[in-house]
UniProtKB/TrEMBL annotation:
This is Dipeptide/oligopeptide/nickel ABC transporter ATP-binding protein. It comes from the Bacteria. It is a peripheral membrane protein. SMART domains: AAA. It is found in: Cell membrane. Keywords: ATP-binding, Cell membrane, Membrane, Nucleotide-binding, Transport. Residues 4-255 form the ABC transporter domain. GO terms for molecular function: ATP binding; ATP hydrolysis activity. GO terms for cellular component: plasma membrane. Belongs to the ABC transporter superfamily.
């Protein structure tokens, strides 16, 4: 049973003198307790704006958000800023790419952590400090009592990201959103942080949305995956199905662009031609059409239909000519969850 249901979420930036920018266009997704859901796509595809809209962190002026973000039976898009502040930290929490911009550089780690604990609970300062120490231990920081007295610049990048995770989980949120949490870290530390997130999800039963451009991160961590392109979800599937049988030509291209150890040495790497800026507005046809090797004239005959590409499990692609299409698949216009 999903405790987070995002329905038809659309975000439009409106600036005077500029045409509106629809950064997120009809995103629908579900997250269940203990489930990790990946949102992947190139830079500019709308991943971060989707997560900021779910968190209620977009500015109210100049930004129009429509659709629903249902957490249990509450629609977070209808809450006041004050109500949303209470939800953040206690029920939903977010981890960003660069902990140095999220942590206050002139306040000790211990004070930043205990402030979060006392703001959302009745804990005394002594209890909050004990809890802070136990949280640092939980996220794998050695000698936590000493670390509590240190400032962010005294910690390594990996340690700072662990502190951010400790702050995020301090109030036992139901939902954790991680936006490229490992991009700024070197590879071995990345793996440790991903292991930590996996353990936290399985032990606490919280849901995780992992925002990333890195398909390797999704493969190692996520149960379900949504691939975004130009503001829309173009493919939704379990991670196993997405990697085993990619259906949207964009997903297929992304997967084929990953270099493999068994590739011939000297063989040219696969690339998706053009850039995400070469796009068709979705109401005129498929936004990916200018870059797609499978494109036909019909791809520009209006918004692409959603195709149910598996008969055995939910797997949908917003494409009229999907790759790996089984004979019994069909087009669908209204589906629950994922691509719509
Ligand atoms: N404040 C803003 N005003 C206008 N357009 C914006 C604003 N913020 C984001 N956008 C646009 O929204 C689109 C989606 O941006 P978003 O940051 O969600 O992409 P992303 O997939 O997360 O990329 P990245 O991985 O680079 O962060 C982009 O075209 C971006 O230029």
């Amino acid at each position: 049973m999903s405790f987070l249901q995002v329905r038809d979420l659309t975000v439009t930036f409106q600036r005077s003198g500029h045409p509106p920018v629809r950064a997120v266009d009809g995103v629908t997704l579900d997250v269940a307790a203990g489930q990790s859901v990946g949102i992947v796509g190139e830079s500019g595809s709308g991943k971060s704006v989707t997560s900021l809209a779910i968190m209620g962190l977009l500015p109210r002026r100049g930004v129009k958000v429509t659709g629903q973000v249902l957490l249990g039976d509450r629609d977070l898009t209808t809450l006041t800023p004050r109500q949303m502040r209470d939800v953040r930290g206690s029920e939903v929490a977010m981890i960003f790419q660069d902990p140095m911009t999220s942590l206050n550089p002139v306040i000790t780690v211990g004070r930043q952590l205990t402030e979060v604990i006392t703001r959302h609970s009745q804990a005394s300062r002594v209890d909050a400090r004990r809890e802070a120490e136990s949280l640092l231990r939980r996220v794998g920081i050695p000698d936590p009592a000493r670390r509590l007295g240190e400032y962010p610049h005294q910690l390594s990048g990996g340690m700072r990201q662990r502190v951010m995770i400790a702050i995020a989980i301090a109030c036992r949120p139901k939902l954790l959103i991680a936006d490229e949490p490992t991009t700024a870290l070197d590879v071995t530390i990345q793996a440790q942080i991903l292991d930590l997130l996996r353990d936290l999800v399985s032990e606490s039963g919280c849901g995780l949305i992992m925002i990333t451009h890195d398909l390797g991160v999704v493969a190692g961590l996520c149960d379900d995956v949504h691939v975004m392109y130009a503001g829309r979800v173009v493919e939704s599937a379990t991670a196993t199905n997405l990697f085993g049988q990619p259906s949207h030509p964009y997903t297929d291209g992304l997967l084929r662009s990953i270099p493999r150890m068994d590739d011939d040495r000297g063989a040219a790497l696969h690339t998706i031609r053009g850039s995400v800026r070469d796009l068709v507005p979705w109401d005129r046809g498929c936004a990916f059409q200018p870059r797609c090797d499978r494109a036909v004239d019909a791809c520009l005959a209006g918004p692409p239909a959603v195709t149910d590409v598996s008969v055995t499990s939910p797997h949908r692609a917003r494409c009229i000519r999907p790759v790996n299409l089984p004979a019994s698949s069909k087009s669908v216009s209204t589906v629950k969850g994922g691509v719509r």
